Amino acid sequence: GVTITIIDPCSTIVVTSADMTEDSAGTWSYSYQSSTTDILGPYEVEIVATETSPTLVSRKKIVGFILVQTE
Description:
This protein has 71 residues and is mostly beta strands. The chain is built from no helices and 6 strands. The strands form 2 sheets. It has a 4-stranded antiparallel sheet, with no helix packed on it. A two-stranded antiparallel sheet has the order 3-4. The protein is elongated and about 50 Å long.
């Protein structure tokens, strides 16, 4: 499976190892709904993919996004 962890600009974890969804094309996604109380700025995203067959394999990727206010 694939999980996602999202960390805000103050290093607070706002999503912890949530399961991502795989579509029929094999693309994984996760929908994060921001709120007006979320801190603006750069967020860190950790994505971990783990395969258990035939052996345990785990891959981790760290990416990011910037939450900005729009009108």
